[in-house]
Amino acid sequence: MRERDEQEVASDLTRCAHAGEGRLPSATEPLAPPVWQTAAYAYPDLETLDAIYEGRERGFIYGRYGLPNHAQLEQALADLEGTEAALVTASGMSAISALLFALLSPGDRVIASELVYRGTRNLLDLDLARFGVVVDYVDATDLAAVEAALRRPGQPARMLYVDVLTNPTLLVHDVPALAELAHRHGTLLVVDSTFVTPYHCRPAQLGADLVVHSTTKFIAGHHDVSGGAVLGRSELVEPVRQQAIRIGGIGGPFDAWLILRGLRTLPLRMSQSSRNALALAAWLAEHPAVERVSYPGLPGHRQHDLARRLLANGYGSMLAFEVPGGRTAVARLVRALRLIRFAETLGGVTTTIVHPASTSHRSVDPATRAALGIGDGLLRLSAGIEATEDVVHDLERGLASLA
Ligand SMILES: Cc1ncc(COP(=O)(O)O)c(C=O)c1O
To answer: How many CB atoms neighbour CB 12 within 10 A?
Structure first.
Protein backbone atom coordinates (compact mmCIF):
# COMPACT_ATOMS: atom_id res chain seq x y z
CA MET A 1 0.00 0.00 0.00
CA ARG A 2 1.43 3.38 -0.87
CA GLU A 3 2.18 5.39 2.28
CA ARG A 4 -0.23 8.22 1.47
CA ASP A 5 -3.20 5.83 1.37
CA GLU A 6 -2.47 4.23 4.74
CA GLN A 7 -5.06 6.21 6.67
CA GLU A 8 -7.81 5.69 4.12
CA VAL A 9 -7.96 1.91 4.35
CA ALA A 10 -10.64 0.42 6.56
CA SER A 11 -10.63 -3.28 5.76
CA ASP A 12 -8.17 -6.15 6.15
CA LEU A 13 -9.33 -7.31 2.74
CA THR A 14 -7.70 -4.22 1.21
CA ARG A 15 -4.77 -4.31 3.64
CA CYS A 16 -3.95 -7.90 2.65
CA ALA A 17 -4.36 -7.31 -1.08
CA HIS A 18 -1.90 -4.36 -0.94
CA ALA A 19 0.49 -5.81 1.65
CA GLY A 20 4.15 -4.99 1.06
CA GLU A 21 3.70 -2.28 -1.56
CA GLY A 22 5.86 0.83 -1.55
CA ARG A 23 9.46 1.40 -0.66
CA LEU A 24 10.89 0.97 2.83
CA PRO A 25 12.66 4.08 4.10
CA SER A 26 16.42 3.45 4.25
CA ALA A 27 19.43 5.71 3.88
CA THR A 28 21.38 2.58 2.88
CA GLU A 29 21.15 0.34 -0.19
CA PRO A 30 21.23 -3.43 -0.57
CA LEU A 31 24.73 -4.76 -1.17
CA ALA A 32 23.43 -7.50 -3.47
CA PRO A 33 20.75 -6.79 -6.06
CA PRO A 34 17.25 -7.65 -4.88
CA VAL A 35 14.97 -10.02 -6.77
CA TRP A 36 12.28 -7.85 -8.35
CA GLN A 37 9.69 -10.60 -8.09
CA THR A 38 6.83 -8.81 -9.77
CA ALA A 39 4.86 -9.70 -12.88
CA ALA A 40 4.09 -6.08 -13.80
CA TYR A 41 4.96 -2.44 -13.07
CA ALA A 42 2.42 0.25 -12.16
CA TYR A 43 2.35 3.49 -14.18
CA PRO A 44 1.95 6.76 -12.24
CA ASP A 45 -0.29 8.15 -15.04
CA LEU A 46 -1.30 7.85 -18.70
CA GLU A 47 1.33 10.36 -19.87
CA THR A 48 4.13 8.15 -18.48
CA LEU A 49 2.60 5.09 -20.15
CA ASP A 50 2.69 6.94 -23.49
CA ALA A 51 6.25 8.15 -22.90
CA ILE A 52 7.43 4.59 -22.19
CA TYR A 53 5.64 3.09 -25.21
CA GLU A 54 7.02 5.84 -27.44
CA GLY A 55 10.57 5.37 -26.12
CA ARG A 56 10.81 8.87 -24.61
CA GLU A 57 11.23 7.42 -21.11
CA ARG A 58 12.59 4.12 -19.91
CA GLY A 59 10.36 1.97 -17.77
CA PHE A 60 9.57 -1.63 -17.05
CA ILE A 61 6.09 -2.73 -18.06
CA TYR A 62 5.38 -6.45 -17.71
CA GLY A 63 7.22 -9.66 -16.75
CA ARG A 64 7.21 -11.22 -20.19
CA TYR A 65 8.86 -8.07 -21.64
CA GLY A 66 11.77 -8.29 -19.16
CA LEU A 67 12.31 -6.98 -15.64
CA PRO A 68 15.22 -5.34 -13.75
CA ASN A 69 16.92 -8.70 -13.00
CA HIS A 70 16.93 -9.46 -16.74
CA ALA A 71 18.29 -6.00 -17.54
CA GLN A 72 21.12 -6.40 -15.00
CA LEU A 73 22.10 -9.77 -16.45
CA GLU A 74 21.91 -8.43 -20.01
CA GLN A 75 24.22 -5.55 -19.10
CA ALA A 76 26.72 -7.90 -17.46
CA LEU A 77 26.75 -10.32 -20.43
CA ALA A 78 27.03 -7.53 -23.02
CA ASP A 79 30.00 -6.11 -21.07
CA LEU A 80 31.71 -9.50 -21.03
CA GLU A 81 31.11 -10.34 -24.70
CA GLY A 82 31.80 -6.74 -25.78
CA THR A 83 28.50 -6.39 -27.65
CA GLU A 84 26.15 -3.48 -28.05
CA ALA A 85 23.06 -5.43 -26.99
CA ALA A 86 21.98 -8.55 -25.13
CA LEU A 87 18.76 -10.44 -24.57
CA VAL A 88 18.28 -13.03 -21.83
CA THR A 89 15.70 -15.79 -22.12
CA ALA A 90 14.24 -18.73 -20.23
CA SER A 91 16.64 -21.33 -21.69
CA GLY A 92 19.29 -21.77 -24.34
CA MET A 93 16.66 -23.21 -26.66
CA SER A 94 14.31 -20.27 -26.17
CA ALA A 95 17.20 -17.94 -27.13
CA ILE A 96 17.94 -20.04 -30.23
CA SER A 97 14.26 -20.36 -31.23
CA ALA A 98 13.64 -16.65 -30.87
CA LEU A 99 16.75 -15.94 -32.96
CA LEU A 100 15.85 -18.37 -35.76
CA PHE A 101 12.17 -17.41 -35.93
CA ALA A 102 12.99 -13.69 -35.83
CA LEU A 103 15.63 -13.69 -38.54
CA LEU A 104 14.52 -16.41 -40.98
CA SER A 105 11.65 -16.37 -43.48
CA PRO A 106 10.19 -19.00 -45.79
CA GLY A 107 12.63 -19.81 -48.59
CA ASP A 108 15.70 -18.69 -46.61
CA ARG A 109 18.66 -21.03 -46.62
CA VAL A 110 20.75 -21.80 -43.51
CA ILE A 111 24.13 -23.51 -43.57
CA ALA A 112 24.71 -25.30 -40.28
CA SER A 113 27.52 -27.40 -38.89
CA GLU A 114 26.72 -31.11 -39.14
CA LEU A 115 27.64 -31.24 -35.44
CA VAL A 116 25.52 -28.29 -34.37
CA TYR A 117 23.99 -28.79 -30.88
CA ARG A 118 21.32 -31.47 -31.34
CA GLY A 119 18.47 -29.34 -29.94
CA THR A 120 19.25 -26.67 -32.52
CA ARG A 121 19.30 -29.29 -35.26
CA ASN A 122 15.92 -30.64 -34.12
CA LEU A 123 14.46 -27.15 -34.21
CA LEU A 124 15.82 -26.54 -37.71
CA ASP A 125 14.67 -29.93 -39.04
CA LEU A 126 11.32 -30.29 -37.27
CA ASP A 127 10.11 -26.69 -37.07
CA LEU A 128 11.94 -24.20 -39.28
CA ALA A 129 11.68 -26.69 -42.17
CA ARG A 130 7.86 -26.71 -41.76
CA PHE A 131 7.92 -22.96 -42.33
CA GLY A 132 9.91 -23.31 -45.53
CA VAL A 133 13.47 -22.75 -44.29
CA VAL A 134 16.05 -24.88 -46.11
CA VAL A 135 19.03 -26.21 -44.15
CA ASP A 136 22.32 -27.47 -45.59
CA TYR A 137 24.53 -29.34 -43.13
CA VAL A 138 28.28 -29.23 -43.71
CA ASP A 139 31.48 -30.17 -41.92
CA ALA A 140 32.14 -26.58 -40.87
CA THR A 141 35.68 -27.42 -39.73
CA ASP A 142 36.35 -27.73 -43.48
CA LEU A 143 36.46 -24.15 -44.79
CA ALA A 144 36.38 -25.33 -48.42
CA ALA A 145 33.12 -27.22 -47.72
CA VAL A 146 31.62 -24.08 -46.13
CA GLU A 147 32.72 -21.96 -49.06
CA ALA A 148 31.19 -24.46 -51.53
CA ALA A 149 27.89 -24.34 -49.59
CA LEU A 150 27.96 -20.53 -49.59
CA ARG A 151 28.58 -20.48 -53.35
CA ARG A 152 25.84 -23.04 -54.14
CA PRO A 153 23.75 -21.64 -57.01
CA GLY A 154 20.20 -20.59 -56.26
CA GLN A 155 19.21 -19.03 -52.95
CA PRO A 156 22.11 -17.23 -51.15
CA ALA A 157 22.48 -18.36 -47.55
CA ARG A 158 20.90 -16.05 -44.97
CA MET A 159 22.75 -17.60 -42.03
CA LEU A 160 25.77 -19.73 -41.19
CA TYR A 161 25.37 -21.39 -37.77
CA VAL A 162 28.11 -23.13 -35.75
CA ASP A 163 29.10 -23.85 -32.15
CA VAL A 164 32.64 -22.76 -31.16
CA LEU A 165 33.35 -26.36 -30.07
CA THR A 166 31.32 -29.27 -31.40
CA ASN A 167 29.22 -31.37 -29.09
CA PRO A 168 30.28 -34.00 -28.12
CA THR A 169 33.41 -34.42 -30.25
CA LEU A 170 35.21 -31.18 -29.28
CA LEU A 171 36.25 -30.12 -32.76
CA VAL A 172 37.01 -26.43 -33.18
CA HIS A 173 35.32 -23.98 -35.55
CA ASP A 174 37.53 -21.25 -36.94
CA VAL A 175 35.25 -18.32 -36.06
CA PRO A 176 37.31 -15.50 -37.70
CA ALA A 177 37.71 -17.45 -40.96
CA LEU A 178 34.00 -18.41 -41.00
CA ALA A 179 33.05 -14.76 -40.36
CA GLU A 180 35.19 -13.63 -43.26
CA LEU A 181 33.69 -16.26 -45.59
CA ALA A 182 30.10 -15.59 -44.46
CA HIS A 183 30.41 -11.83 -44.83
CA ARG A 184 31.91 -12.15 -48.31
CA HIS A 185 28.63 -13.80 -49.30
CA GLY A 186 26.32 -11.43 -47.39
CA THR A 187 25.55 -14.18 -44.84
CA LEU A 188 25.11 -13.71 -41.08
CA LEU A 189 27.37 -15.77 -38.80
CA VAL A 190 25.68 -17.06 -35.62
CA VAL A 191 27.92 -18.76 -33.03
CA ASP A 192 26.83 -20.83 -30.03
CA SER A 193 29.49 -20.14 -27.42
CA THR A 194 28.01 -22.16 -24.54
CA PHE A 195 31.01 -24.52 -24.21
CA VAL A 196 33.64 -21.78 -23.96
CA THR A 197 31.94 -18.67 -22.45
CA PRO A 198 33.56 -15.23 -22.75
CA TYR A 199 36.29 -16.47 -20.39
CA HIS A 200 37.88 -18.40 -23.27
CA CYS A 201 36.45 -16.77 -26.41
CA ARG A 202 34.42 -13.71 -27.46
CA PRO A 203 33.06 -14.62 -30.89
CA ALA A 204 31.52 -11.18 -31.50
CA GLN A 205 35.05 -9.73 -31.29
CA LEU A 206 36.14 -12.24 -33.93
CA GLY A 207 33.46 -11.34 -36.46
CA ALA A 208 30.34 -13.29 -35.38
CA ASP A 209 27.15 -11.29 -35.93
CA LEU A 210 25.26 -12.99 -33.12
CA VAL A 211 26.42 -15.06 -30.16
CA VAL A 212 24.12 -17.42 -28.28
CA HIS A 213 24.54 -19.11 -24.92
CA SER A 214 22.79 -21.67 -22.85
CA THR A 215 23.47 -19.79 -19.59
CA THR A 216 22.16 -22.95 -17.87
CA LYS A 217 25.70 -24.23 -18.22
CA PHE A 218 29.01 -22.55 -17.27
CA ILE A 219 27.63 -19.03 -16.96
CA ALA A 220 25.19 -19.94 -14.18
CA GLY A 221 27.49 -22.76 -13.21
CA HIS A 222 25.68 -24.55 -10.36
CA HIS A 223 23.26 -27.02 -12.04
CA ASP A 224 20.31 -25.16 -10.54
CA VAL A 225 18.75 -22.87 -13.17
CA SER A 226 17.94 -22.67 -16.89
CA GLY A 227 18.62 -19.65 -19.06
CA GLY A 228 19.77 -18.44 -22.44
CA ALA A 229 21.19 -15.35 -24.09
CA VAL A 230 21.56 -13.71 -27.52
CA LEU A 231 24.22 -11.03 -27.98
CA GLY A 232 25.23 -8.77 -30.81
CA ARG A 233 24.40 -5.49 -32.51
CA SER A 234 21.11 -3.85 -31.44
CA GLU A 235 19.72 -3.98 -34.98
CA LEU A 236 19.88 -7.80 -34.81
CA VAL A 237 19.16 -8.39 -31.11
CA GLU A 238 16.06 -6.16 -30.93
CA PRO A 239 13.98 -8.16 -33.45
CA VAL A 240 15.00 -11.29 -31.54
CA ARG A 241 13.80 -9.65 -28.30
CA GLN A 242 10.43 -8.82 -29.87
CA GLN A 243 10.13 -12.42 -31.09
CA ALA A 244 11.03 -13.76 -27.63
CA ILE A 245 8.35 -11.51 -26.12
CA ARG A 246 5.74 -12.71 -28.63
CA ILE A 247 6.50 -16.40 -28.06
CA GLY A 248 6.80 -15.97 -24.29
CA GLY A 249 10.47 -16.91 -24.09
CA ILE A 250 11.60 -14.70 -21.20
CA GLY A 251 12.23 -16.49 -17.87
CA GLY A 252 11.41 -15.47 -14.34
CA PRO A 253 13.30 -12.79 -12.37
CA PHE A 254 14.72 -15.21 -9.81
CA ASP A 255 16.28 -17.28 -12.61
CA ALA A 256 18.03 -14.16 -13.96
CA TRP A 257 19.13 -13.32 -10.39
CA LEU A 258 20.63 -16.82 -9.94
CA ILE A 259 22.44 -16.62 -13.28
CA LEU A 260 23.95 -13.23 -12.41
CA ARG A 261 24.98 -14.62 -9.06
CA GLY A 262 26.71 -17.53 -10.80
CA LEU A 263 28.33 -15.23 -13.35
CA ARG A 264 30.22 -13.37 -10.61
CA THR A 265 32.53 -16.36 -10.14
CA LEU A 266 32.77 -17.34 -13.82
CA PRO A 267 36.52 -16.61 -14.24
CA LEU A 268 37.42 -18.43 -11.01
CA ARG A 269 35.34 -21.46 -11.90
CA MET A 270 36.49 -21.58 -15.54
CA SER A 271 40.10 -21.24 -14.52
CA GLN A 272 39.88 -24.26 -12.19
CA SER A 273 37.61 -26.40 -14.39
CA SER A 274 39.68 -25.85 -17.55
CA ARG A 275 42.84 -26.71 -15.59
CA ASN A 276 41.11 -29.90 -14.44
CA ALA A 277 40.01 -30.71 -18.00
CA LEU A 278 43.56 -30.35 -19.32
CA ALA A 279 44.97 -32.54 -16.55
CA LEU A 280 42.24 -35.17 -17.03
CA ALA A 281 42.66 -35.20 -20.81
CA ALA A 282 46.43 -35.66 -20.53
CA TRP A 283 45.97 -38.42 -17.94
CA LEU A 284 43.27 -40.21 -19.98
CA ALA A 285 45.42 -40.03 -23.13
CA GLU A 286 48.06 -42.12 -21.33
CA HIS A 287 45.62 -44.60 -19.80
CA PRO A 288 45.76 -48.09 -21.35
CA ALA A 289 41.97 -48.59 -21.01
CA VAL A 290 41.22 -45.47 -23.09
CA GLU A 291 41.13 -45.70 -26.88
CA ARG A 292 40.98 -42.03 -27.82
CA VAL A 293 40.71 -38.59 -26.17
CA SER A 294 39.44 -35.40 -27.76
CA TYR A 295 40.46 -32.17 -26.03
CA PRO A 296 41.57 -29.06 -27.95
CA GLY A 297 44.32 -28.41 -25.40
CA LEU A 298 46.18 -31.63 -26.18
CA PRO A 299 48.99 -31.24 -28.73
CA GLY A 300 47.64 -34.43 -30.39
CA HIS A 301 44.25 -32.79 -31.18
CA ARG A 302 44.16 -32.23 -34.94
CA GLN A 303 43.16 -28.58 -34.44
CA HIS A 304 45.41 -27.76 -31.49
CA ASP A 305 47.06 -24.84 -33.34
CA LEU A 306 43.67 -23.36 -34.20
CA ALA A 307 42.55 -23.81 -30.57
CA ARG A 308 45.67 -21.95 -29.41
CA ARG A 309 44.80 -19.03 -31.70
CA LEU A 310 41.09 -18.99 -30.93
CA LEU A 311 40.88 -19.64 -27.19
CA ALA A 312 42.35 -17.64 -24.31
CA ASN A 313 43.01 -18.73 -20.71
CA GLY A 314 43.16 -22.43 -21.54
CA TYR A 315 41.06 -24.70 -23.73
CA GLY A 316 37.76 -25.11 -21.95
CA SER A 317 36.33 -27.61 -19.51
CA MET A 318 34.80 -30.13 -21.94
CA LEU A 319 36.48 -33.28 -23.17
CA ALA A 320 35.46 -36.55 -24.75
CA PHE A 321 37.04 -39.99 -24.53
CA GLU A 322 36.30 -43.41 -25.92
CA VAL A 323 36.57 -46.78 -24.22
CA PRO A 324 36.55 -50.12 -26.03
CA GLY A 325 33.56 -52.36 -25.39
CA GLY A 326 30.72 -49.96 -26.32
CA ARG A 327 27.59 -49.70 -24.16
CA THR A 328 28.52 -52.61 -21.90
CA ALA A 329 31.81 -50.97 -20.93
CA VAL A 330 30.14 -47.58 -20.50
CA ALA A 331 27.50 -49.10 -18.21
CA ARG A 332 30.22 -50.59 -15.99
CA LEU A 333 32.27 -47.43 -15.93
CA VAL A 334 29.45 -45.08 -14.93
CA ARG A 335 28.20 -47.51 -12.28
CA ALA A 336 31.66 -47.53 -10.67
CA LEU A 337 31.92 -43.73 -10.38
CA ARG A 338 31.34 -42.19 -6.96
CA LEU A 339 32.18 -38.50 -7.33
CA ILE A 340 31.47 -37.84 -11.01
CA ARG A 341 27.72 -37.76 -11.68
CA PHE A 342 26.16 -39.39 -14.73
CA ALA A 343 23.89 -36.54 -15.85
CA GLU A 344 22.61 -34.97 -19.04
CA THR A 345 24.07 -31.52 -18.58
CA LEU A 346 27.41 -29.73 -18.33
CA GLY A 347 29.06 -26.62 -17.01
CA GLY A 348 28.47 -26.91 -13.26
CA VAL A 349 30.81 -26.80 -10.28
CA THR A 350 30.74 -30.60 -10.09
CA THR A 351 32.16 -32.90 -12.77
CA THR A 352 29.54 -34.67 -14.88
CA ILE A 353 29.72 -37.31 -17.57
CA VAL A 354 27.27 -38.25 -20.29
CA HIS A 355 26.90 -40.96 -22.93
CA PRO A 356 25.98 -39.12 -26.17
CA ALA A 357 24.93 -42.30 -28.02
CA SER A 358 22.19 -42.75 -25.39
CA THR A 359 21.24 -39.07 -25.06
CA SER A 360 21.84 -36.26 -27.59
CA HIS A 361 22.42 -38.70 -30.48
CA ARG A 362 20.03 -41.47 -29.35
CA SER A 363 17.77 -41.04 -32.38
CA VAL A 364 20.66 -41.00 -34.89
CA ASP A 365 21.31 -44.32 -36.63
CA PRO A 366 24.56 -46.01 -35.54
CA ALA A 367 26.27 -45.69 -38.95
CA THR A 368 25.65 -41.93 -39.13
CA ARG A 369 26.72 -41.57 -35.50
CA ALA A 370 29.93 -43.47 -36.14
CA ALA A 371 30.65 -41.28 -39.20
CA LEU A 372 30.29 -38.22 -36.93
CA GLY A 373 32.77 -39.74 -34.45
CA ILE A 374 30.14 -40.65 -31.86
CA GLY A 375 30.69 -44.33 -31.21
CA ASP A 376 28.95 -46.43 -28.53
CA GLY A 377 32.03 -46.18 -26.28
CA LEU A 378 32.25 -42.37 -26.36
CA LEU A 379 31.77 -40.42 -23.12
CA ARG A 380 31.68 -36.63 -22.80
CA LEU A 381 32.97 -35.12 -19.58
CA SER A 382 32.39 -31.65 -18.18
CA ALA A 383 35.10 -30.84 -15.64
CA GLY A 384 34.01 -29.20 -12.41
CA ILE A 385 36.04 -27.28 -9.86
CA GLU A 386 36.93 -30.17 -7.53
CA ALA A 387 40.55 -31.01 -6.67
CA THR A 388 42.09 -32.61 -9.77
CA GLU A 389 43.39 -35.66 -7.89
CA ASP A 390 39.92 -36.51 -6.56
CA VAL A 391 38.43 -36.54 -10.05
CA VAL A 392 41.37 -38.55 -11.43
CA HIS A 393 40.94 -41.04 -8.58
CA ASP A 394 37.23 -41.46 -9.42
CA LEU A 395 37.93 -41.92 -13.14
CA GLU A 396 40.61 -44.45 -12.25
CA ARG A 397 37.97 -46.36 -10.29
CA GLY A 398 35.64 -46.21 -13.32
CA LEU A 399 38.30 -47.38 -15.77
CA ALA A 400 39.47 -50.15 -13.40
CA SER A 401 35.96 -51.62 -13.63
CA LEU A 402 36.63 -52.36 -17.33
CA ALA A 403 39.54 -54.72 -16.59
C1 LIG B 1 25.80 -25.97 -26.92
C2 LIG B 1 24.42 -25.88 -26.39
N3 LIG B 1 23.60 -24.94 -26.88
C4 LIG B 1 22.32 -24.83 -26.46
C5 LIG B 1 21.80 -25.68 -25.51
C6 LIG B 1 20.37 -25.54 -25.07
O7 LIG B 1 20.32 -24.95 -23.82
P8 LIG B 1 19.12 -25.17 -22.76
O9 LIG B 1 19.18 -26.59 -22.32
O10 LIG B 1 19.46 -24.16 -21.70
O11 LIG B 1 17.86 -24.86 -23.47
C12 LIG B 1 22.63 -26.65 -24.96
C13 LIG B 1 22.11 -27.58 -23.94
O14 LIG B 1 22.72 -28.59 -23.61
C15 LIG B 1 23.97 -26.76 -25.40
O16 LIG B 1 24.80 -27.71 -24.92
So the answer is: 9
